[in-house]
Specification:
Blueprint: H1 12-38, H2 43-49, H3 51-64, H4 68-90, H5 94-123
Length: 127
Amino acid sequence: MSLPLQSTPGTPLAIAGTFASLAIFLSITVHIAARNVLGDVPVRNAFVIGPVPAAVSFLITTFARTNTPVLFFGLGLALVLDGIAIHYLYDRAPRLSAYITVIHFVVSVILGTVLFGILAIFQSAPG
């Protein structure tokens, strides 16, 4: 299945909605990761952490386009800033914060893949 690429820039409302959706998705996945490792944690911390990697993602994809080394740098930067935010907001040791960051990355990839697959199935349905 081939998805068409967006050839024209989106409206400011569409861009803000996409950023908000990504930030909420990442907030949910960081909360899942933190609860998995730490147990009962406040959800407000997750809604502070989620926009950090979302902002890096938006900035890198806006300016990098198809420059692969810049995209990998952006992924690394998002992971580092995510780990720093987790470290300060949950007030944990650096190794535990790194572990939560890895779990956050894994949960985000798995949940994102599943949701994209469900969307692709619905879009390819006949009728």
